[in-house]
Structure formats: C-alpha cells, structure tokens
Sequence to fold (52 residues):
Amino acid sequence: MYNRSFFQSKLGQASLASIAAMTALIAVSTQMQADPMVAFAPDSQMHLIEIA
Fold:
C-alpha cells in the first residue's frame, strides 16, 4: 500500500508535505502560550455591546 513507488509519486509527495505541515502546525501551536491577561484588558478603550 505505502511503498517506495507511492512516495515517489505526486500523490505520495503531497501526502508527505501534508503530514509535515500538520506536524509543524502542532509543534508551533503547542509552543504558543497566550497570557490570559492580554486577552482580557479591562482598561482598554473597547466598547462591549451585548446583542440580545
């Protein structure tokens, strides 16, 4: 099923690129730690509007 001829084809190369991109995305997203106080800034000039 997954042999050398598959990974030498365009579909196989695309699958390897996709796997590499997903792995990189997971690695980068686990390194990013958002500070909760940055997301919540009570002294900002932003107006909050509640939509009922």
